[in-house]
Amino acid sequence: MHFPVLLEESTDLLLGNSGKIYVDCTVGAGGHTKRILEKNPEAYVIGIDLDEEALSLAEENLKNYEGRFSLYKANFSQIDEVLEEEGLERVDGFLFDLGVSMMQLKSERGFSFQIDAPLDMRMNKEQKLTAYRVVNEYSERELERIFRDYGEERFSKRIARAIVTKRKKKPIETTSELAQIVWECYPPKLRHGRIHPATKVFQAIRIEVNRELDNLKEALEKTPDLLNPKGRLVVISFHSLEDRIVKNFLRERGDIFKVLTKKTLRPSEEEIKKNPASRSAKLRAAERRA
Ligand SMILES: C[S@@+](CC[C@H](N)C(=O)[O-])C[C@H]1O[C@@H](n2cnc3c(N)ncnc32)[C@H](O)[C@@H]1O
Questions:
Q1: Domain 125-209: homologous superfamily in CATH
Q2: 38, 166, 188, 268: least CB-packed within 10 angstroms?
Q3: Ligand 1 centroid from CA 104, angstroms
């Protein structure tokens, strides 16, 4: 089950302009979309996701709201094309709840080192690049860069070297094999910290496989032309690099956007207790100037 993160805060901010048409750019299981439809009986939501399994779940979870939403299998970097298909030029708000869902993490699609599965990590099952290809085909230097830049992993050099050495003997095929390699690269006294040693490497590979940072930049750049005056942009991020992209974008486009969250919003202690996966969430919201 996926607990929608910062549910009340994000939907209040999104709907604060009393608009009608909103885009949930990461519809997932439909948690945020459902809340938007409940809170504003006049709202219509266009839900986008790369993941077909997520879209089927959303369809099921939103069945009481038939006629008030439409779902698209698309990359949110294509929001302009989705709106064109809907016959719309502008909407009243965009919501982004970035990262992976609990369904994806708990699936056998290779997102988590806690579940032994083939190295895959694709949100969109039709794309060619998989975690297997990153791990077995990228150069040592590229691997090191990904682990350092996307994972902020202090042992990136050592881990990249270990991967390249291992794969010379046989391809690295599963999440468990990869997690074991990373584990062995960590000094024994650091193996039992707050997070598992493989956490950052897995996150870094997932960001690379799904081009997460580039997609976010491309989508944000498109929002000014697609928002009505007073249209809202709400972004929940889980990674410091994502949050920096959002922060810089809003700063650079200060001519267009008025920031509504002077400080980022964070989940309450209570929410973190109920849903520990929410602990790193940060929310930023802005309104298009009239
Ligand atoms: C954290 S989940 C969203 C959960 C959702 N808000 C809910 O309440 O059920 C993130 C979702 O975004 C999707 N996603 C990630 N990057 C995407 C992209 N570039 N385009 C479209 N969907 C994307 C993932 O497949 C995943 O289902």
A1: Putative methyltransferase TM0872, insert domain (1.10.150.170)
A2: 188
A3: 10
